[in-house]
Specification:
Number of helices: 10
CATH class: Alpha Beta
Helix content: 40-55%
Strand content: 5-15%
Shape: globular
CATH superfamily: Alpha/Beta hydrolase fold, catalytic domain
Oligomer: single chain
CATH topology: Rossmann fold
Structural class: alpha/beta
Distance between the termini: 43 Å
Radius of gyration: 18 Å
Number of domains: 1
Largest sheet: 8 strands, mixed
CATH architecture: 3-Layer(aba) Sandwich
Order of helices and strands: HHHEEEHEHEHEHHEHEH
Strand order of the largest sheet: 1-2-4-3-5-6-7-8
């Protein structure tokens, strides 16, 4: 069960759901300081450095204590593909970077509706290739994404597999948005319990991203419908009070069916991407995700030696 403090904060957010959602989407997620300002921020003991070579806003985050010298995390941000920027990237990625003890590349990709699919995937592939170009081996790279970033992490892995390249070492997903057609029961059953998300708003974003409602079940748009054969170990964290709960459950089932070592952790009473809210549960989830990523990258190193 959530702590009393978490319950109180979630109740407050839920009681002002529309206002909070509008504030987040229209203000907080659109604050866009220059990359140099974002890089200078000190978060969770990490430091940042602007990555100029990517030709899009990007920062390499270095943890205060480095546990995997030759490993890297590629972080892909959320925002329903229509919002989000580098400040949000830094805020979400830094706790995971610090917990994992692994350098983390995060970047701000092009957004719908001005840039529908596949612009985001093209940007993600460019970031991934950058890591390869600077010397990281595929088996020493892990992917992390929250919400739409979870969708993008899976789409990127599918693209990597289709190209014939070796797969990343691991994937960690925070409340992934992977069934844009909204076929799961939680979209209706948890509509009142969800403190932050609205299904109708999400559908508008989904169509803006996909370009057409007819595409919402395509595996490249909704990875929950994909074949995950050959995917690396995958960790999924979600809250039990978010309308995307069915997405995580659908994804875990599809991955296990394909022989993937996938694990889903449901956090009681938590909302969508609760890791960003500073709850005790947020800190615990970030620690678990960081440990998973660190171990995956360390084990990849031992296996290749």
């Amino acid at each position: 069960m959530p702590t009393r403090r978490s319950q109180g904060m979630l109740g407050l957010i839920r009681s002002h759901k529309k206002t909070a959602a509008n504030l987040s989407r229209d203000v907080l997620m659109k604050i866009n300081p220059v990359p140099q300002t974002v890089a200078r921020l000190r978060m969770n003991g990490t430091r940042g450095e602007v990555v100029e070579d990517l030709r899009m806003p990007a920062v390499m985050i270095t943890p205060g204590r480095l546990s995997v010298e030759d490993g890297a995390i590629l972080h892909l941000h959320g925002g329903a593909y229509v919002s989000g920027g580098l400040l949000q990237c830094r805020a979400i990625a830094s706790p995971i970077c610090g917990a994992a003890g692994v350098r983390t590349l995060t970047f701000s990709y092009r957004l719908a509706p001005r840039h529908p699919y596949p612009a985001q995937l093209e940007d993600a592939m460019r970031a991934y290739r950058f890591l390869l170009d600077v010397g990281y081996l595929p088996e020493k790279i892990a992917l992390v994404g929250e919400s739409a970033g979870g969708n993008l992490a899976l789409a990127l892995a599918l693209k990597i597999r289709a190209s014939g390249r070796p797969m990343p070492a691991a994937i960690a997903l925070l409340s992934p948005w992977v069934d844009l057609a909204q076929t799961g029961k939680s979209y209706a059953e948890l509509a009142d319990a969800d403190a932050t998300l609205d299904a109708e708003d999400l559908m508008k974003s989904a169509v803006a991203f996909a370009g057409s409602p007819a595409r919402l079940r395509d595996p490249d748009i909704s990875p929950a419908y994909a074949d995950f054969t050959g995917f690396p170990p995958t960790l999924i964290h979600c809250g039990t009070n978010e309308i995307l709960l069915s997405d995580s459950e659908m994804l875990e089932h599809a991955m296990l069916k394909c022989g993937v070592k996938a694990s889903l952790f449901r956090w009681a009473g938590m909302c969508h991407v609760f890791q960003a809210f500073g709850f005790e549960e947020s800190k615990a989830s970030n620690r678990q995700i960081g440990l998973f990523l660190r171990n995956a990258l360390l084990n990849a190193g031992r296996e290749s030696s």
